[in-house]
Amino acid sequence: METLQLEVLTPSGPIYNGPAKSVTLPGEEGEFGVLPQHVSLTTLLQAGVVDVHKEDGKTESIVVNWGVVQIARNKVVVLVDGAVAIRGASEGDIAKALDEAKALINSVGDSNAMIASVSARIETMAHH
Amino acid sequence: MANLKEIQRQIKSVSNTQKTTRAMKLVSTAKLRRAEELAKRSRLFAQKTNQVIAEIAGRIQCNKVGGIDNRCFLENSAPQVVDIIFVTADKGLCGGFNMQTIKAVRRLIKDYENKNVKIRLRGIGKKGIEFFNYNQVEMIDEVKNLSSAPDMQRSSEFMTRSINDFKEGIVDAVYIVYNGYKNVITQELHVTRVLPVNVEGYDCEEVKNSTLELEAQDEEKMLDSLVTKYAEYNMYYALIDSVAAEHSARMQAMDAATNNAKEMVNSLKVKFNKARQEAITTELIEIISGVESMK
Question: Whole-model pTM?
Answer without folding.
Answer: 0.84
